[in-house]
């Protein structure tokens, strides 16, 4: 097992070094603020969708594109290394008796199985935090700085990690205790109960996150006065979105990325813009991005994606159920595990669960990518800012590979690629030529 540990740490070290060779300090990764409309993308009699698309794509210099590809393709490998790292963590917990020791501590405290599981899960969250720290530091801190995407010093970043740990300490142990209660009571049908529980839990977290979790990491306040506010509120009114909950937050604390989101559920729904979007982009870009976000709201994506994700989780639990029986028969006795109701076997179950999700990556990415493509189409119609959307897509392409192959897109992309988004915007522009007498504003299609 030491050999595996050496290989994984060797790989992490190699990643750190290779990432450094490509460090962003020599290339300006980001675009300067403001909307650039290439000549070929200005509508006119000779407007050509493919030429306009290529003109937008050419906004990225070859060096910027190389940097973006390296960052994004490195992410593919990180999914695999992340899984293998998890296998090593599980091996450490199971082989060193750490896992059994945590279970025995639980038994010393209480005779009730659910209290024992609660204590085991609490220790598992804490020890897992420590064991995952090396890869978390590399992925979340070192690598983000290498590519010019992070803004936090280590202290601030680590403080955020501790807050995340606090959230996990509060939320995860009860969830794991309930999961094991289902395993004890429902027998071979535990995975059905657990899937139902997962559905309720996801809705619950969606409901609570905007109110209790997000404000731990960033300041949320009403969207600042100005043209952007007027435009966003007008777009919200036009699409029947409650306008009293449109806010901005200081994402620049952590990152240079632009983003916005619609979060929450039922009464806690909130449309949020990050300050990078407000400060680094132009009004047409802001409108285009918000049109997309409002698409998520109007098309009810939060609920729909929860249903889809719960179905995938049901498959995952079923897979864990079948594989655990086999794995316990094979290794259970040697590792001192007493069966599937034994919390000490949790690291084994987690490895099987993550293996399923690694294999299901093309499926889960395709589910979200489909919703994102719908929101793109909605946003183009709602905001009528095709150049703004193309420009925003190009900004995102400074750290997402601009033009993947078809299979690569299916497997790894949870959003349409920059190419697809620019191309889609240019198709929209062609089909909505400017109104007579106007130089820029496209005429809206008649219903
Ligand atoms: Zn989206």
Brief summary:
With 447 residues, this protein is mainly alpha-helical. It has helices spanning 2-21, 49-57, 62-95, 98-109, 113-146, 154-186, 190-217, 227-238, 275-280, 283-298, 301-335, 346-359, 361-383, 386-396, 406-412, 418-431, and strands at residues 220-222, 246-249, 260-263, 270-274. The model is unreliable at 17-22 (pLDDT under 50).
Task: Give the secondary structure arrangement, pairings included.
Elements: H1 2-21, H2 49-57, H3 62-95, H4 98-109, H5 113-146, H6 154-186, H7 190-217, E1 220-222, H8 227-238, E2 246-249, E3 260-263, E4 270-274, H9 275-280, H10 283-298, H11 301-335, H12 346-359, H13 361-383, H14 386-396, H15 406-412, H16 418-431
Parallel strand pairs: 2-4
Antiparallel strand pairs: 1-2, 3-4
The structure holds zinc ion (ZN).
Keywords:
447 residues; mainly alpha; binds zinc ion
Overall description:
- Helices cover 69% and strands 4% of the residues.
- Strands 1-2-4-3 form a 4-stranded mixed β-sheet.
- The longest helix is centred in the last third of the chain and has 35 residues.
- Helix 6 packs antiparallel against helix 7.
- The protein contains 16 helices and 4 strands.
- With 447 residues, the chain is mainly alpha-helical.
- The structure holds zinc ion (ZN).
- Zinc ion binds next to helix 10 and helix 13.
């Amino acid at each position: 097992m030491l050999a595996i540990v050496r290989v994984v740490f060797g790989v992490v070290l190699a990643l750190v070094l290779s990432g450094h060779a490509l460090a962003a300090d020599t290339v300006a990764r980001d675009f300067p603020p403001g909307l650039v409309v290439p000549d070929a993308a200005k509508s006119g009699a000779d407007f050509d969708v493919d030429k306009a698309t290529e003109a937008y794509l050419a906004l990225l210099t070859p060096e910027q594109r190389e940097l973006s590809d390296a960052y994004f393709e490195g992410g593919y490998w990180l999914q695999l290394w992340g899984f293998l790292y998890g296998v090593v963590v599980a091996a450490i917990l199971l082989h060193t008796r750490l896992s059994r020791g945590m279970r025995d501590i639980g038994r010393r405290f209480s005779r009730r199985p659910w209290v024992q599981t609660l204590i085991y899960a609490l220790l598992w969250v804490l020890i897992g935090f420590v064991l995952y720290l090396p890869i978390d530091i590399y992925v979340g801190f070192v690598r983000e700085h290498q590519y010019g995407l992070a803004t936090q010093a280590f202290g601030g970043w680590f403080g955020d990690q501790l807050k995340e740990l606090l959230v996990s300490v509060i939320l995860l142990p009860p969830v794991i205790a309930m999961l094991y209660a289902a395993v004890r009571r429902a027998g071979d049908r535990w995975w059905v109960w657990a899937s139902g529980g997962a559905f309720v839990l996801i809705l619950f977290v969606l409901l609570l996150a905007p109110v209790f979790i997000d404000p731990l990491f960033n300041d949320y306040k009403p969207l600042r006065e100005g043209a952007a506010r007027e435009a966003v509120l007008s777009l919200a009114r036009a699409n029947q979105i409650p306008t009293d909950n449109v806010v901005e937050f200081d994402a620049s604390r952590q990152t240079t990325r632009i983003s916005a989101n619609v979060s929450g559920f039922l009464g806690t729904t909130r449309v949020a813009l990050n300050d990078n979007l407000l400060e680094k982009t132009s009004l047409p870009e802001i409108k285009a991005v918000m049109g997309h976000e409002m698409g998520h709201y109007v098309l009810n994506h939060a609920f729909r994606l929860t249903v889809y994700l719960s179905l995938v989780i049901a498959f995952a639990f079923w897979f864990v159920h079948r594989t655990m029986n086999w794995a316990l028969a094979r290794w259970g006795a040697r590792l001192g595990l007493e069966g599937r109701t034994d919390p000490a076997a949790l690291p084994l179950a987690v490895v099987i669960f993550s293996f399923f999700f690694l294999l299901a990556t093309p499926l889960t990415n395709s589910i979200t990518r489909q919703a994102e493509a719908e929101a793109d189409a909605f946003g183009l119609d709602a905001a009528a800012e095709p150049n703004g959307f193309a420009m925003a897509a190009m900004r995102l392409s400074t750290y997402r590979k601009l033009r993947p192959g078809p299979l690569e897109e299916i497997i790894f992309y949870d959003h349409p690629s920059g190419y697809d988004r620019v191309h889609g915007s240019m198709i929209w522009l062609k089909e909505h030529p400017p109104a007579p007498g106007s130089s820029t504003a496209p005429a809206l299609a008649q219903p």
